[in-house]
Amino acid sequence: MLPLAQFIAIFATSIFAGAAVYINLVEHPARMGCSIELAATQWAPSYKRATLMQAPLAVIGFLAGSSAWWLGAGLLWLIAAFLILAVVPFTLVVIEPRTNKPLLVPGRDLGAAETRELLVKWGRLHAVRSVLGLIASAIFIWQAVGA
Question: Which pTM was predicted?
Fold first, then answer.
């Protein structure tokens, strides 16, 4: 049971981290290379679709990582599990009210300078999610290979 929990933790967390890094290094910079109106228009459906993928992956990574710890894998599995879970409250408490909700307000002037500022801020805040995912993945993998 322990190897299965470890595999699922590594798999879910690594997919989360890869997707988050892709968004920060490829998708968001490409989006920002367009007009702000187009960038904001594309951001909304991209954000909604990414949420459907990334939120479950973070929760699965947490559940599997904490299960691995419970099954005797060691304290670092629990620490990494909480690191990947941290993206959920960070998103809900920090990112959601500061960027997501304002960007999704109906009737927002998508070409406004404020919209651009929100998108730039969103990219910086999303980078925190990428870093948390990468650190959690690295810990899980390091523990699995080095243990």
Answer: 0.94
